[in-house]
Amino acid sequence: MSGPRSPAAQPEVAPQRAWTEMIMGLPISIHLRTTDFSGPPADGVVRAYNVMRWADTVFSPFRADSVLSRVNRNEISLDEAGPSFRTVLRLADRALLATDGAFDVRAAGTLDPCGIVKTWAAQRAARLLPPDSYLNAGGDISLKATGAPWRIGVEDPADSSTLLAVFALRRGGLATSGTAHRGHHIIDPVHRRPAAGITQVTVVGPSLMWADIWATALVARGAGILDAHDCLLRRCVDSGYQVLGVSDDARVWQTPGLTSLLDPLGGSPGTPLACRTPPDLSRIPAACRAPSAVVPSGFR
């Protein structure tokens, strides 16, 4: 007869350290798990923050001396704006086409790529960090883990003191768009008015930048994304992303693959996800797919 079993050994979790700086008018925090916070890890933090500051000097619409402001005043051409500026506009072209016009950096009537720049820069900055880390850019997170997953909570838009869900993620990005903190700031590009119908959308997938694009596009499209004939939600899922959303009527819904990304031990104190009604994606035509070609949208 064998003796009593010893408790299963729990994996050791490396010490964690965090830094926070205000950049782009937002708190940008960096979180590392490592036994050594000097040398390369610390250098990576410095370099990551430098990337975010550089992006602010180039793309801020609130700085009179930014490259974006000078382009909008016709003081310099796009050729003079630099390769990174043109790269962001090409990505915006792709996003406009992939989202069927729901993500448009000219939706407000002037060139404003802020909807893509923050997470584009955050994703670039996060690549400079050690392999067990995440960068949180005002609630949009790019992460990677070598051991235990990072647990990321998403606020309930109806009550910021509670969580709508807790994710357990080892890589990729998580982005949330909505009206809880900034009001109706997202423009519906089709009707040229503040978007309505969707209170909050969280998108999780391999790229923070594209998660942010899809989150913004889904809020901009409004309640129509849950219509069986609308292709936008299907395009998002087919691109490798999962969605948790809250409609203006307080309905909470999710795409089918989202459950596998949730923390099984740290669920939401709100309604169990099993009780939430997701849209019937099977009714959306399978022919709705993101196009494979990109045509210029004429930023010039």
Describe this structure in words.
It is built from seven helices and twelve strands. It is α+β, with helices and mostly antiparallel strands and 300 residues long. It is 27% helix and 24% strand. The N and C termini lie far apart (80 Å). The protein has one domain (17-283): ApbE-like domains (T-fold). A hairpin with a 2-residue loop joins strand 3 and strand 4 (140-144).
Order of helices and strands: EEHHHHHEEEEEEEEHHEE
Distance between the termini: 80 Å
- The name CATH uses for the topology is T-fold
Number of strands: 12
Strand content: 15-25%
Please give the CATH class: Alpha Beta
Please outline the major beta sheet.
8 strands, antiparallel
Query: Can you tell me the number of structural domains?
Result: 1
Helix tally equals: 7
Fraction of helical residues: 25-40%
The CATH homologous superfamily is named: ApbE-like domains
Mean pLDDT: 82
Task: Specify the overall morphology.
Answer: globular
CATH architecture: Roll
Low-confidence stretches: 1-10, 267-300
- What class do helices, strands and sheet pairing give? alpha+beta
Q: How are the strands of the biggest sheet laid out side by side?
A: 1-2-3-4-7-10-11-12
Computed Rg = 20 Å
Write the layout of secondary structure elements.
Layout: E1 16-23, E2 26-33, H1 40-59, H2 67-72, H3 78-81, H4 83-98, H5 114-126, E3 133-137, E4 140-144, E5 150-156, E6 159-169, E7 171-178, E8 187-188, E9 193-194, E10 198-205, H6 208-221, H7 232-238, E11 242-247, E12 252-254
Helix pairs in contact: 1-5, 5-6
